[in-house]
C-alpha cells in the first residue's frame, strides 16, 4: 500500500470502494495512489491491484467485432475464441447489435436470449453491471432466460430452506463476531476461516474485523479447530488446531463425531425432541440399524484419514461447551455438496447449541466479510430490474449443459425442467471463463450460439470468445454509491480518472441500444447517471429521516464522501427467536423445526440427495492415474479473475505463471523442485503452473487457486492446454446433485509432472 493507515487522507485523495474494501485514490501524472480507509484495522492488500490497472495494455479501448461474425453473419462458429477482431465506431456497433437483438427476438422470442450474466462486476450500487443488463433486457426485449442461485452457494442455497431457513438467515443474520469474542468456547470450522476470503464482501467493507476478532476470542480461551487440507485456512492469530482430513470427506467425519456423542449419551435429547423433526430415523442410519453400518469413529477414520482416536478426542471435547459449527462455502462446491451443509446442522442440533449466543450453526461464517456482522437498520437502494416476462431458467452452473443440449430435461429441486434453446448470450460483469468448470467443454458450448455479446474492461478469455466486445469503464472511471447491507459506511464513490480510450459506462451503452430499440425512456426513466445516484440515495435519506436521524441531502453526502448508517441490534436472527420461543417463532420449514430428516426431499426420490444427511462416496475422487486432489479455491491475491493483471496479483506469480502448492513428499516422488514449471492434467485438460513446496498443504492435495486468466495453447499432439494456470481446465462440469445442481468446481482428481523444455510464453495480458 502506498501510504500508512494512520495519517488522515490528503485533500486530493478521493473516496472510492471495491468489493475488497473502502479506500481513497488519486490519479496524477499517470500514477495512481491508493490508500485504505483510515478506520480499517486490517486493510485488504487487493486494493493495490488498481495501481497499474487504469491504462494497462490489456484494457479494451474500442468496440470490437469478431471478423467471422462480421463477414458471415450470426450463427454457430468453431472459430469463436481463435478469430481476429475488427475495430468499429460506437454508432455502427450499436446499430448492428440493436438489429441483431431485434432479429433474435422477432425470429425466436426473448426466450432465445440468455441474460443471466453471472458475475461479481464492481461494487457500486448503480453501475452494478448484472442489474444493468437485466434491466435493459427486461425493458427492451421483454425479458431473458435467467439463472438462479450462485457459484458461491449453489447447493446450500437450495438445501438450507428445506432444513433451517433461507441462506441469508443462516449465513448473514445469525452468530456475530461480537458473540464469538464474548461467548464461544469452540469454533469447529470445516474448511477453515481464511482471512483472504473474509476480507471480501460484495458492495465493499470499511472495517475488516475478522483478524482482531479471532485474536480476541483466542485470547479469552476460545479454541479454533480447522478441518481443512490447508494450514493457511486460519490466520496465526487464531492459534487454530489443524486437522487435515481428506477433502470431500467431511460428512463422514461429522457422522463419526456424532456417533461418538450418541454412543456416550452426550447428545442433547431434550433439544432434539423439542426443536427437531425426524431424529429417530436419522439415528437408525447413524448407528447402523437401518443399513448395517454404524458410522463409528473407526468407520469415519478409514474414510477421512484422521485417526479414530483423534475423532473420539474431538467429540469428547465438545459436550457442555458453547460450540459453533461452521462450514465454508467450499465444502458444498463439490459433488454431494448438500450433505456437509445438512450434516453440520444436525451435529450442531445434537450438541443442543442452535440459537445460543456464539453457538450452534452459522453456515459460511468466515468466508465473506458479510457474515458475522450486524445488519444495517436502513436500506440502500439498488437499481430496479423491471419485470422478466420469460419463465424458463437454469441453475447458474448449468450454462454449458443448456447451450450444448437445448430441449434436454434436467432435475432441479423436485421438478423436471427443460433447457431452452439459446441463440444469443449477453454478458456484462462476469467472466464465465473464470467461473465455470471444464473450460474445453465451455468453449464448445459458446460456439453453438448465433451471437455472444460481452461488455468488459479488459481482454478476458470471455471477451476473446465473444462476437461483439464493448469496452466499458473501470469503476475508478465513474461515480457511484458504495454500500453493503452489513457495513455501516456508505461511500460516495468519486470518479478518480477519465475513461480509458473509448470506454463507456454500461448504463450509457444500454441507453443507446434502448434508443435504437425504441425503449430509451423505459430503460432510463429520463435520468442521467448522476440523477440516478440522487434518486437511489433518496431511499436511504428518507429512512434516516423516519428514524429521526441526521439525513443529509445528496450534495452534502457527496461532498463529505461518506455517511455512517445505523445498525440493528445483535439479536441472533431467526434461530435465536426460535430457540427462545419455538411456538411463536417456528422456523420457515415444513415442520417449523430443524429438519433432521426431510420428507419433502425424500419425496423427490433422488439417489444423490436422500431424505436425511448421509455419506455418499464421491464418484470423481482420486484414482490410480490421477491420485492427487486439486484444491481449486479462491485466490489470495485478487477477487476471482478481476484485475489478475493488477500489481498485487502479478507480484505473487512466478515465471509468469500462477503458483500451485504441494507437499514436499508429493513433489519429491515426482522429481519436482521449488520453482519448477509443472503440468497439471487429467482426462479433461491440462495447464501449466509454477510449483511451490510447502508442508502447509496436506499430502495428497495440490492447491491451484482460481483466477489466472485462461490462456489456451495446443501441445505437440494437438491437445489444448492453458499456459497460465487456470484450474478450471481440469474441473468437472457436473451439478452437486439432482436437488441443487450447484457448481462442483472446488475438488478434482489430477496428476502433476515436471514440464520439460521451454514453456510457451504466457499471453493472457496482451490485447489480441
Ligand atoms: N473451480 C472453481 N471455480 C470457481 C470457484 C471455485 O472455488 N473453484 N468459485 C466460484 C465462485 S464462489 C464465484 S462467485 C465465481 C466468480 O466468478 P465471476 O464473478 O464471474 O468472476 P469475476 O472475476 O469477479 O468476474 C467479474 C468480471 O466483471 C468484469 N467487470 C468488473 N467491473 C465491471 C463493470 O463495471 N462492467 C462490466 N461490464 N464488467 C465489469 C471484470 O473485469 C471481470 O471479468 O467463480 C466460481 N468458480
Ligand atoms: N481473496 C479473495 N477472497 C474471496 C474471493 C476471492 O476470489 N478472493 N471470493 C469470495 C467469494 S465470491 C466467495 S463465494 C467466498 C468463497 O469461500 P470458500 O468457497 O469457502 O473459499 P475457498 O477459498 O474456495 O475455500 C476455503 C477453503 O476450504 C478448504 N477446502 C476445500 N475443499 C474442502 C473440503 O472438502 N473439506 C474441507 N474441510 N475443506 C476444504 C480449502 O483449503 C480452501 O482454502 O470467498 C470470497 N472471498
Ligand atoms: Mo462466490
Task: Describe the protein.
The protein is α/β, with parallel strands linked by helices and 768 residues long. The protein has three domains: 64-145 and 390-479 and 500-527, 3-Layer(aba) Sandwich (Rossmann fold), CATH 3.40.50.740; 159-372, 3-Layer(aba) Sandwich (Dimethylsulfoxide Reductase, domain 2); 628-754, Barwin-like endoglucanases (Beta Barrel). It is 29% helix and 17% strand. The strands form nine sheets. A six-stranded mixed beta sheet has the order 5-4-19-18-17-6. A six-stranded mixed beta barrel has the order 24-28-25-27-26-31. A five-stranded parallel beta sheet has the order 10-9-8-12-13. Strand 1 and strand 2 form a beta hairpin. Helix 3 runs parallel beside helix 20, helix 9 (250-263) runs antiparallel to helix 12 (297-304) and helix 12 (297-304) packs across helix 13. Mean pLDDT is 97; it is low at 1-6. Bound molecules: ligand MGD (2 copies) and molybdenum atom. Residues 150-152 line the site of molybdenum atom.
Amino acid at each position: 500500500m502506498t501510504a500508512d493507515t494512520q495519517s488522515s487522507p490528503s485533500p486530493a485523495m478521493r473516496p472510492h470502494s471495491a468489493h475488497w474494501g473502502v479506500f481513497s485514490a488519486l490519479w496524477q501524472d499517470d500514477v495512481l495512489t491508493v490508500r485504505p480507509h483510515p478506520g480499517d484495522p486490517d486493510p485488504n492488500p487487493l486494493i493495490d491491484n488498481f495501481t497499474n490497472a487504469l491504462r494497462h495494455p490489456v484494457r479494451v479501448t474500442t468496440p470490437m467485432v469478431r471478423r467471422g461474425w462480421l463477414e458471415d453473419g450470426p450463427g454457430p462458429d468453431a472459430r469463436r475464441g481463435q478469430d481476429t477482431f475488427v475495430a468499429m465506431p460506437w454508432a455502427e456497433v450499436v446499430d448492428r447489435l440493436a438489429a441483431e437483438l431485434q432479429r433474435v427476438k422477432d425470429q425466436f422470442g426473448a426466450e432465445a436470449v440468455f441474460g443471466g450474466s453471472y458475475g461479481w462486476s464492481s461494487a457500486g450500487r448503480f453501475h452494478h453491471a448484472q442489474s444493468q443488463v437485466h434491466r435493459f433486457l427486461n425493458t427492451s426485449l421483454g425479458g431473458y432466460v435467467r439463472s438462479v442461485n450462485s457459484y458461491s452457494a449453489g447447493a446450500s442455497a437450495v438445501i438450507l430452506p428445506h432444513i433451517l431457513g433461507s441462506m441469508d438467515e443462516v449465513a448473514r443474520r445469525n452468530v456475530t463476531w461480537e458473540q464469538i469474542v464474548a461467548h464461544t468456547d469452540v469454533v469447529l470450522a470445516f474448511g477453515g476461516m481464511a482471512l483472504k476470503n473474509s476480507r471480501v464482501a460484495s458492495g465493499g467493507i470499511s472495517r475488516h474485523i475478522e483478524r482482531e476478532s479471532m485474536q480476541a476470542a483466542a485470547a479469552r480461551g476460545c479454541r479454533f479447530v480447522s478441518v481443512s487440507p490447508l494450514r493457511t485456512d486460519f490466520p496465526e492469530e487464531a492459534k487454530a488446531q489443524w486437522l487435515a482430513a481428506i477433502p470431500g470427506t467431511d460428512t463422514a467425519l461429522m457422522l463419526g463425531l456424532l456417533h461418538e456423542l450418541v454412543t456416550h449419551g452426550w447428545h442433547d435429547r431434550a433439544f432434539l425432541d423439542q426443536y427437531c423433526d425426524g431424529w429417530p430415523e436419522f439415528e437408525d442410519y447413524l448407528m447402523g440399524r437401518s443399513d448395517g453400518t454404524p458410522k463409528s469413529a473407526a468407520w469415519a477414520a478409514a474414510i477421512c484419514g484422521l485417526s479414530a482416536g483423534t475423532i473420539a478426542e474431538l467429540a469428547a471435547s465438545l459436550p457442555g461447551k458453547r460450540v459453533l459449527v461452521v462450514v465454508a462455502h467450499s465444502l458444498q462446491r463439490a459433488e454431494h455438496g448438500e450433505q456437509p451443509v445438512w450434516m453440520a446442522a444436525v451435529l450442531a442440533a445434537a450438541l443442543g447449541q442452535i440459537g445460543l449466543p456464539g453457538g450452534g450453526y452459522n453456515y459460511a461464517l468466515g468466508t465473506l466479510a458479510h457474515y458475522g456482522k450486524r445488519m444495517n437498520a436502513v436500506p440502500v437502494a439498488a437499481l430496479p430490474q423491471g419485470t422478466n416476462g420469460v419463465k424458463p431458467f437454469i441453475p447458474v452452473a448449468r450454462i454449458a449443459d443448456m447451450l450444448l443440449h437445448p430441449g434436454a430435461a434436467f432435475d432441479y429441486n423436485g421438478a423436471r425442467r427443460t433447457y431452452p434453446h439459446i441463440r444469443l448470450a449477453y454478458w456484462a460483469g462476469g467472466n464465465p471463463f473464470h467461473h465455470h468448470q471444464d473450460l474445453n467443454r465451455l468453449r464448445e458450448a459458446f460456439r453453438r450460439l448465433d451471437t455472444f455479446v460481452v461488455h468488459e474492461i479488459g481482454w478476458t478469455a470471455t471477451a476473446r470468445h465473444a462476437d461483439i466486445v464493448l469496452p466499458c469503464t473501470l469503476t475508478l472511471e465513474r461515480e457511484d454509491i458504495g454500500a453493503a447491507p452489513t457495513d455501516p459506511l456508505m461511500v460516495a464513490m468519486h470518479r478518480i480518472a477519465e475513461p480509458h480510450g473509448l470506454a463507456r459506462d454500461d448504463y450509457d451503452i444500454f441507453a443507446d441500444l434502448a434508443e435504437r430499440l425504441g425503449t430509451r425512456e423505459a430503460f432510463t426513466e429520463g435520468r442521467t447517471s448522476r440523477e440516478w445516484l440522487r434518486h437511489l440515495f433518496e431511499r436511504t435519506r428518507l429512512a434516516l429521516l423516519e428514524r429521526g436521524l441526521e439525513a443529509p441531502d445528496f450534495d452534502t453526502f457527496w461532498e463529505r464522501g461518506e455517511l455512517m448508517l445505523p445498525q440493528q441490534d445483535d439479536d441472533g436472527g431467526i434461530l435465536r427467536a426460535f430457540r427462545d420461543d419455538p411456538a411463536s417463532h417456528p422456523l420457515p420449514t415444513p415442520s417449523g423445526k430443524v429438519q433432521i430428516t426431510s420428507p419433502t426431499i425424500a419425496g423427490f426420490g433422488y439417489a444423490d440427495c436422500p431424505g436425511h444427511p448421509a455419506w455418499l462416496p464421491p464418484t470423481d475422487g482420486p484414482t490410480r492415474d490421477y491420485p492427487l486432489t486439486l484444491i481449486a479455491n479462491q485466490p489470495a491475491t485478487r477477487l476471482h479473475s478481476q484485475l489478475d493483471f493488477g500489481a498485487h496479483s502479478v507480484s505473487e506469480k512466478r515465471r509468469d505463471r500462477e503458483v500451485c502448492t504441494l507437499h514436499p513428499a508429493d513433489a519429491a516422488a515426482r522429481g519436482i523442485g521449488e520453482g519448477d514449471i509443472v503440468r497439471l492434467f487429467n482426462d479433461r485438460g491440462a495447464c501449466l503452473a509454477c510449483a511451490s513446496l510447502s508442508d502447509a498443504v496436506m499430502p495428497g492435495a495440490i492447491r491451484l487457486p482460481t483466477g489466472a486468466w485462461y490462456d489456451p495453447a495446443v501441445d505437440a499432439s494437438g491437445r489444448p492446454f492453458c499456459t497460465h494456470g487456470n484450474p478450471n481446465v481440469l474441473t468437472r462440469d457436473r451439478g452437486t446433485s439432482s436437488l441443487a445442481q450447484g457448481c462442483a468446481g472446488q475438488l478434482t482428481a489430477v496428476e502433476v509432472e515436471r514440464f520439460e523444455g521451454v514453456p510457451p510464453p504466457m499471453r493472457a495480458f496482451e490485447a489480441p
